[in-house]
Amino acid sequence: MTFGFTRSCGACAAPNDDRSAFCEECGSSLAVDCPACGSPTTPGKRFCRSCGAALTSAAMHDMGGDSTGSVPAMTAPAAERRVCSVLFCDLVGFTPLSETRDPE
Fold this sequence. Notes:
little secondary structure; rod-shaped
């Protein structure tokens, strides 16, 4: 029986039919999760059906959506917020003192 769509295993690159959950050659999982919400994705789709996030080219390639063998496009990293602690100490008379001293 021939299926119209195959995906390659991310571990051994063996071809598997699109309905397989595990690789027929090495036994590794073929499921790829959405990088944003973690829900399972469908091979060949560009957006997650649960959260609507765009699926990256790398994830599409792992699922077999890109069978041309081209290099996946680089994506910009998502913005992130980090906690930063800042300590400020104002010494009396420090500014006039520092202006009269050598910067080094």
